[in-house]
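thread from #wetlab-drylab

HS: before we spend reagent money on co-crystallization trials with calcium ion, can we at least see a predicted complex? here's what I'd submit
DV: go for it
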Amino acid sequence: MIFRPVRKLGLLTKFAILGAIPTLILSVMLGKTLQASISHRAREHARDEAVLFSHLAVEPLISEAGVASTLSATEASKVRSVMARDGGRSGVTGVRIWRRDGELAFTSGRVRHERPVHDSAALGSAFAGRSGWSLVGSGAADLHVFVPLRLGQADQVDAVLEVSMPYAPIAERINEESTELLLILLAGLTLLYAALFRIVAGASNKLRQQVAENEHQALHDALTGLPNRTLFRDRVEQAILAARRGEAHLAVMLMDLDRFKEINDTLGHHNGDFLLQQIGPRLRHCLRESDTIARLGGDEFALLLPNLQDPASATRVAEKIRSALSRPFVLEGLTLSVEGSIGIAFHPDHGTDVDALLQRADVAMYVAKETHNGHEVYATEDDQYSPSRLSLVGDLRRAVGSGELLVYYQPKVDLASGEIDGVEALVRWKHPERGLLAPDEFIPLAEHTELIKPLTYEIIGTAFKQCRSWHDRGHDLSIAVNLSVRSLLDLQFPDDVARLLEEHNVRPGWITFEITESTLMADTWRAMAVLKRLSAMGIGLSIDDYGSGYSSLSYVKRLPISEIKIDKSFVMNMDRDENDAVIVRSTIDLGRNLGLNVVAEGVETEEVWKKLAALGCNMAQGHYLSEPVPADEITQRGGARLLPDRSPSDLPGASVGHRDALAGL
Ligand code: C2E
Ligand code: CA
Ligand code: CA
């Protein structure tokens, strides 16, 4: 019972209480022992005085005969005078001499507190040869010391001298000494207690700090000091409870920094960390005191905006955050601006619990990344991205390197000669449950994660190997491989490609990399550095989906590219839509003026093929010529399979060479 409240007390209070009890007991016990020993010592001292007095002063004055009956008058007067002379110094106030028969042989007559002989055990033991003492009377008591007197034979006690002295001065001395010792003892114990208290106080303080620190660590991110996932979830839960009571909305936002991995890879982890540490303070200014910003891990941050009056204010905050991030950060003298993709979900519209809100915000963030819109509010349509699509990520992780990724090839045909010049490698995923998946279903997912890197290397490896194998059979085909933005921002990429070229014994001139315009917009200086190195190695570079983005030709001119591919959206309809036809025509002109190879993709009809040939386009790719097919089909069945419902000679402008090329495959 008593321990329950004690357990609740702080360590220090516990020590103060529990430590004081034994200290007190110890001091009382020590005090008692000391006092007993002091008073014992004081009495012994008094006895020694009395023994000395009797042996040195009294014994020489008396005779054996005297103590046998009564002291002679001379002896008695000598004893009295020695008492008068020396007794005062020793504190002796009375003397009596006892005979063996229990009668008195002498009394100084000033003995207070007379007592019968048989009462005193000390007298008895003195006759037995041991001096002793007893305290007689109370209050102003006397100490009576009994000293055996041996006047004749040394082994026989002839009489006992009883010396009485007042006890008060002895008691006073005892008191004085005891008090002094007790004070010293008390001071010592107090010091000891204080020292222990200090030590315990220090330790308890440290412990308390440690506990607080541990608590902080459990709820905060070590790198940035921001709340972590656990604390964030807790805050969202609290906010949901509060929002249920009132009218207010609340928003959960997830933000992922774009290209953070590249910053980390190129500028080093310490710079990446430094950047992450600056995000929190930078965003704080965009938020209210009651808002929470947390780091969920990596470059993913979460925000909680409780008490929103209207949902639109959340998008305003998202805009503010993006503009705050776009102000340059300085890292090792380099200034760089950061972009973040933000997904927003509202309570109660998009979810009523933490998990639902986080998941919806995640979907919205994913859409924001995909659409490059910066921020997106969750919309039900977006759920195509999730959760089943997001679950694909796990499958994809397993699929990379497992042989589930297949590469199909689609021919690129020379419009003038009708000859196949090369093929474009296009990936497919043979999913064990979902069947053959088109790249649009998983490439964006891979790009959203780190998976795009191993995936790209796997495709490049497969394509290079295939290229080598065709060349070994005498088919002079070039291969185009699509690159993702990640590859282009990876300064290591050209080295890796060089290694793969060597590994598969493939000439750089046989390879073209296709890059989309948006890829190029992502990070100019780094993309430029990578492109220049690839181009210097002798690899062809092609701008894919040309016309679908914002690329200006002045920009394209600065790039070391060798080819542009007109986006299929213009090509497919150019025979029906005059606008598309104009775009295709001007692009062909522009490209040719710049000395670039111009490829039209999405050629689905003979009309389009003819028009392109007339416009002077270099190459065509599309279902009219062949769909993307497995490598074996290109190798084994050649042209007949590539152009299923017509013979190669049907192709306008098809030459014998072309026929040979297709037939030879
Ligand atoms: P893309 O690079 O523009 O590839 C051309 C796409 O157009 C291919 O779709 C191809 O099958 C399709 N296509 C070809 N001819 C025609 C036609 O006449 N009509 C129509 N309507 N479509 C035609 P696919 O294979 O589904 O690839 C889609 C996109 O996926 C590619 O677009 C490319 O951006 C991406 N992709 C494919 N393979 C890879 C890869 O290995 N790595 C990367 N990073 N992206 C890839
Ligand atoms: Ca392509
Ligand atoms: Ca394309």
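DV: The CA atoms of residues 603 and 609 lie 6 Å apart.
HS: ok that's useful, forwarding to the group
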